[in-house]
Amino acid sequence: MKKTMIALSLAVGAAGFTLQSLADSNYPERNIEFIVPWNAGGGADNVVRALQNPVEEVLGTNIVVRNLSGGGGAVGFSRALSAKPDGYVVTIPTNATFTLEGLGNVDFTYTDFEYIARVLVEPYVLAVNSGKGWETLEDLVDHLQENDARLMVGASGVGSSTHVMAVALAEELGVEFDVVPYDSGANAVTAAMGGHIDAVVLNPSEVVSGIESGRLTALVTTGDERSGAISQAPTMLEEGYDFSVSQWRGVAAPKGISQEVEDRWVEAIQSAVESPEFQRAAEMMGSDIMPLYGDELDEFVERTARLMIDEAAKLRQ
Amino acid sequence: MADYLDAFGLVFQGYVLLAIAGGTLLGLIMGALPGLTAAMAIALLLPLTFGMPPVMGIGMLLGTLCGAIAGGSVSATLLNIPGTPSSVATTLDAFPMARKGQAGRALGIAIVASFLGGIFSAVVLCVLAPPIAEFALRFGAPEYFALSIFGLVIIASVAKSLIKGLVAGLIGLLLATVGTDPIAGVTRFTYGNYSLLTGINLLPALIGLFAVSQVLADVVDYFKTEKADTSKTKLDKAAPRWLEVIRSWKVLFSSSVIGTIVGAIPGAGGSIASFLSYDQAKKMSKTPEKFGTGHPEGIVASESSNNSLVGGSLIPMLTLGVPGEAATAVLMGGLMIQGIRPGPMLFAEQGAIIYGIFIAFFVANIFMLMFQWFGIRLFVKVLQIPRKLLMAMILVFCVIGVYAVDSDIFNVYLMLGFGVLGYFLNKYGFGTAPVILGLILGPIAESNLRRALLQSGGDWSVFVMRPISLTFLAVALIFLVFTYWQNTRHKTLLT
Amino acid sequence: MESFSIRGSAAGGSLPPAFFPKAICTLLLVLLSVSLLKLIYATAKHNEGCQEASFSRGSVIPVVSWLVVFLLLVLYAVVLEPLGYVVSTALLVFSVVGTLVMLSPGDESGISAKGIAKLGAFSMIVSLLIFFLFSQGFGIILPTLGVMGV
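Output (structure tokens, whole complex):
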């Protein structure tokens, strides 16, 4: 703590005299601000805090995590974008970056960011209340189609990526969902465990303990591969649907950072994902470490962004 | 049993105790400052816990949580600034008592009540966690709605005049509709401002309504009563008041029960627990008219309740893996980074750790008591700072605290707006507590009303067909009638 | 008292696609304002001529100081980000306390050069102390001027 304090005051002091021309080759020369556009304790925040130590080690500087949680991410993202593109302000892009744009609540677009890395991936899970008796996705779809019934599905907040995904899933499966938005994933899970709604579409970390306790049954996940946290549930691809979207979390900066800065970050992330400390945290959070950089990342972003923006735009009316 | 013995071994080590003590102290300090919440304090310490063994890390964070809630009541008592939303009800009686020159007594009562409430919830946590979690699961949208209506009825008993209280409450409810609506996603009253998309932030409202409005009122008072030199202000004896608290054991017990249970229901807006208890205490009291004027039972109710809330909120987190509110969400993040996944399996697989957490929670409460016991004499010294300097410093703390919430200058303007609103509300006898209740309960009431109707297909009968929901609504109605009767009887007695 | 009805109607006038909870809220607010106005009317009538109309100098000063302190706060919020925390806070403390001293007639600590210097030093120290507490102790980023780290 004390060391951090001294380092912090020195670094802040140095900041005043920094000359930009020298900066890039020596990057980083001062503290890096990591903007988390959500509250402390959220999924994204946990990831950043788990990354903090291993990344600090490689970059040799302090990462200051700053939670700017207004507007479902809108405040934090636009604040990050208004920063100088020098690599001293970064943020954590997720699917929410795209859904915000699709919902039309913000005036930035996903192309305003320079995507540095994808770190973690977690699929969306369709989990039903175990008391309803559906064991497989087929059971559920047959039941809904035969009885012309609607499924009451909880999601974590209106316009959130889980909300968007629930709507997209229903469309893909050819069934009717009534999506009930909750204030948080935790509240949606509680309602599903208590049998007040039939199912939830959420990320694994939020439903894992419900599944372990036997109150919820995971029917399907939406990733390319099975999720490490819920390996018993098949993917949509396995079930014969051409559907694959995942929630992801990474690092991004405002567009215009230099190649040197980006390289330093890629190096740091590459080493961070190897650290046992981070791996343990990722496992507990129910996420899979699937790093992606450079062109492959850009391609992934492009594909995911288009899909999420289109789906979110459908919610607008 | 073996698990318990192991757990004792895990907790009673020098470094572990030191970590818990450190966490509690930091929590106390941050909790006492306006704007800095328990969640922020925990997030601040989180990185430090990574290198620690689980019980040590979690113990430190639990200490922070307990300390922050207790610290909130210190500034609520002395300066009418609720450090956290849960201490709003504390201001109702503790501040008037402090103004009467009994700051030491008010704090002494608060400290003891906090401690006993915390210990009560710790016992419940150890003994009854699973069944309470089971009960919490029975809360669906209709129940949450009914609970929030039940909470809104309290406005009637907190306010001095029924109509004025309701108006203030409605202002709160109206302000609560600002932002993206919770079900359809339509933005309301945001005027293109990002900061308002998720609604009015509670902290700027809280600090504006209480602290800023209080300072503005003091500025006016300053010229009327200036001559009294504060540095010679007589302070009463500042020490814990065990007897006084234990004498009102009925209030203590019922408030602790309410706090624990409300805390255990995820997303019920935990900070209303202290209001529920306050209301309950007033209803049971033979002298309800004393509440709001510096009545010890009011302090006992609020303080025991908001500290038992802490233990209660650990119940769903540990047994179901569902964090009930912001602070426990950060705590749960901390657990997961430690490699512990909260949930039903935790009890079966890692008994020693979970019992270690229980014991650490007890220890944290004891540290909380000790620090406050030693600190109480220091706390009251705050009142001896010359008033003009104190006012300026309070304003700085308010602005910075609110700015720190989201590093958003907009929140500061919001706070100033609420400060003016609060000043006039107080001046004309409307009170500011109902506004806060409206702000907290508004979103819960609205979203769950609409969720319930969504689930029932528009059928309003769900609210009366379900036992828990029906009970809340019925009791709310009875309370409303009772309060009205109590008020009118009191009035006729006076005339 | 005016401010309430203005607030209510202004907010009510700009209702976007209305939902019933909002409608209920606004309606109730209007209803209650009416009954409230009645109440006030009644009490005003009751108290007529008792306390009204005493605009002496003594009652003006508190109002003036109230306004000054509030305006200073708004100003503080405006300059906080451009000027940085430390400078603007020192200014705020200085001017708030200064205002109170100047406006209170019989304050013996008065307006001496020494008094001003003392107050200036106090403002600076308080401001710096809080700055270090928050930025170093609590890890909260405050706006800075970018000179010497403050």
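Chain A touches chain C at residues 5, 8-9, 12-13, 15-16, 33, 64, 66 (CB under 8 Å).
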